[in-house]
Amino acid sequence: MTSFMQRIEAGTLAVLCVLFGSLWAVLGLGGEIREGATAGVDRAILLWFRTPGNLALPIGPTWLHESARDITALGGFTVLTLVTFGATLALLAARRRRQALVFAATVIVAQLASGALKSFSGRPRPALVPYLDAVMSSSFPSGHAMMSPVVYFTLVAILAAGSAGRSLRALMIGSALLLVIAIGVSRVYLGVHWPTDVLAGWTLGSAIALVAWRVLALLRPPVVIDS
C-alpha cells in the first residue's frame, strides 16, 4: 500500500511540475514577445505561408485554402462547445459521472484561463498579412491552439481508458494529435495568429489536458484481482 501511494504521489507531483513548468514557459515566452525577441521568427514563418508578391494569397491550391478554414473551425468556440456538451451528456447517460464532471470542469477552467491570458497579454493580431478568418480577441495565446488539446486530448484519455486494444488507443491518440497540430497550423496559415501564439496555446493546453488525464486516472476504480 505504501509503495502504491508513493507511485500516486510521484505521478501527481510530476504532472503538477509539467503544468507549472508550462505556465512558466508561456509567461516567459510572453516576456520575450514583448521585448521583440521573437519578431524575426514570427515574421519569417507567417510570410512562408503567403505567396511572394501577393501577401493576400496563401500558398497552395484553392482547395487547401478552404480546407484550412474547415480545419480551423474544429478548434473554434462553437464546435468545441458542441463537442463538450455532447460528450458530457453521453458520459452522464453512460453513468460515467466522474469522467463527465472532470471533462466539463477542465474545459471550463481552460476557457477561463485562455480569456484571462489574452486580456493580460493584449497582443495585437498580425498586421503583416490580411486575415482569412474572423477574429474578435487579442492574439496571445491562440485560443484555438490552447482549447483543442484540452478538449480532444482529454476526451481521448476518457475513451482510450475504456478501450482494450492497444492499437485502437494508439490510433485515437495519434488522430487527436494530428488534429490539434492541424488546427494550430491553420491559424498561422490563415494569418490570424503569430506562430508563437500557437506554440503557447499548444504548450498550456496540452499541460491542462495532462492534469485532467491524471485526475481521471486517480478517480478510476482500482482493478481487483482475485487470488
- Which residues form runs of ≥5 with pLDDT under 50? 223-227
**Strand residue percentage:** under 5%
Tally the beta strands: 2
How can the largest sheet be summarized? 2 strands, antiparallel
Explain this structure to me?
- By secondary structure, this protein is mostly helical.
- The chain has eight helices and two strands, in the order H-H-E-E-H-H-H-H-H-H.
- A two-stranded antiparallel ribbon has the order 1-2.
- Helix 3 (62-73) packs across helix 7 (166-189), helix 4 runs antiparallel to helix 5 and helix 4 packs parallel to helix 6.
- The chain is globular and about 60 Å long.
- Residues 223-227 have low confidence and may be disordered.
Short description:
The protein has eight helices and two strands; from the N terminus they run H-H-E-E-H-H-H-H-H-H. The chain is mainly alpha-helical and 227 residues long. The chain is globular.
What is the secondary structure topology, with strand pairs?
Blueprint: H1 2-34, H2 39-48, E1 50-51, E2 54-58, H3 62-73, H4 77-93, H5 97-121, H6 143-161, H7 166-189, H8 195-219
Antiparallel strand pairs: 1-2
List keywords for this structure.
8 helices, single chain, 227 residues, disordered C terminus, 73% helix, two-stranded antiparallel ribbon, mainly alpha
